[in-house]
Specification:
Elements (H helix, E strand, L loop, with lengths): L12 H11 L4 E3 L19 E7 L5 H12 L5 E5 L9 H8 L13 H12 L4 E7 L4 E9 L4 E5 L7 H4 L4 E6 L2 H15 L4 H20 L8 E4 L4 H18 L4 H13 L11 E3 L4 H11 L5 H20 L4 E7 L5 E7 L3 E8 L3 H10 L4 E9 L6 E7 L2 H4 L1 H4 L2 E6 L2 E2 L3 H12 L7 E9 L4 H7 L4 E8 L1 E8 L13 E8 L5 H6 L1
Parallel strand pairs: 2-6, 2-7, 3-6, 7-8, 9-18, 12-13, 12-15, 15-17, 16-17, 17-18
Antiparallel strand pairs: 1-3, 4-5, 10-11, 13-14, 19-20
Length: about 525
Amino acid sequence: MLAEDHTHEFFDDESQHSLESHQSKKNTLLKSHGRPPWYGEDGLPICDAFVIGIAGGSASGKTHVAQQIVRSLGSVPTVVILSQDSFYKRHTAEEIALAHANRIDFDHPDAIDMPMFAACLADLKACRQTNIPVYSFAEHQRLNETKYLYGAAIIITEGIMALHHPDLRSLYDLKVFVQCDSDLMLARRIQRDVKERGRSVEGVIEQYLRYVKPAFDNFVSPTARHADIVVPGSNNSVAIDLISTHIRRQMTERARHFRKHMVSQSVECCLSTSDGNPVSKNLIVLPQTPQLKGIYTILRDGTSNRQDFIFFVDRLATFLIEKAMEHLPHRPKTVTTPTGVDCIGKELDVKNVCGVSIIRSGGPLTRGLQRVLSDVAIGSLLVQSDANTGEPLLLHVMLPKCLRERHLAVDTWVFLLDAQIGTAASAFMAIRTLLDHGVQQDHIIFVTFLVARAGGVTVLQRAFPKVKIVTGAVDEGLREAWLERYNEKGEGQSEGDGRKVWIVEPGMGQIGDRYYL
């Protein structure tokens, strides 16, 4: 679980360290308070990420301005700072030799892979994942590895040519130019390149006079006319406050609040279903055998000991995954038995299959998945309710490689795992996240112990009609309750200070807590 302030980074520590060592710590996915919904009740995206382009001369303070903006924003959704330096073109051996001799013009627009830069930024703006290249300044070469990015609500792009290309400018919601004295820029560049990139003072000055200054005069400085605001390279607190105020206003206008509405809509639909049957053919319920009812009786019993609870959760999880496996494509396969006879059977007909657990209540289902598919890759999503609004927040994404790359994701089948579907707020966000990565809707199988008929499952299936839901039981009730907040001493806060929650009834309680604690 994450810290109480719900902060995180999408890069793990090792990956972040590797990236920083190659790219001067410019590409950063900053700590945040989670990504709120970016889609409507129909499951379709209704707002793009907010994109800011920051241009200016070399060492004018663009990265520093970007970081100042983020600090000034305070508690905001996930922010990514994307550096133009990642998108230098791949070089030949001859070009690398010239680069080490300071004979390559890295400040010319042609040095940047603008189409790739624009494509990656367009994916991030449209709330899709992307994989950005990694460039080594020490080697003067783009490396074979890439870095995965997803989930930013605010994207800050910085680079000397950030406002140069019209394809980039068309993606920005706010364009900023950092103005700085040329002497100060040279002093900063010498200090940075000597300390961080292993260059000599003479080499830095030679490159500055040969390439950097002419490029600034010819290509960088003229782009200031495209800027919405010009920011000083130092002593710029007033400008930073103006920018952050504008961004906060934009985030407020883009906020989505429909969790309670999802429940009320589902109740209306549910009440109109008089036959008591599931409302969709894609809601698959295990046959209600005496054995299954006996398992649920043990799991619903609040006095059951933990050892029994874990045993029967694992058993039920296996049943559910086996049922879900029926909905994967299979093809005929002929084998020869030990008696020498050919026998026609079946085998999976899929390129990739993986599991994604919604932390942490989806965890108990992963053991069932691993029992059925022993070598299956499993990723995770952390979705929690906002303490103020009750809306879901996407706090953490860790997905297998077959989902991080779109050309693989399109052929991947996903078992999405969560303990129950109540309001379906977490399920909505999880499914939308998979679709953003290129997973086909009919390749998603949601596996869960419980579904609340009076909950958000009706709205969920209306939004994603091709997603199959496999469950063991459908409970009738979803009760609205009030969860009070407590201070560090465990004392209740002032009256009315808390948030609404929805409880499945009769339910099984907090399944993840009962399983792990």
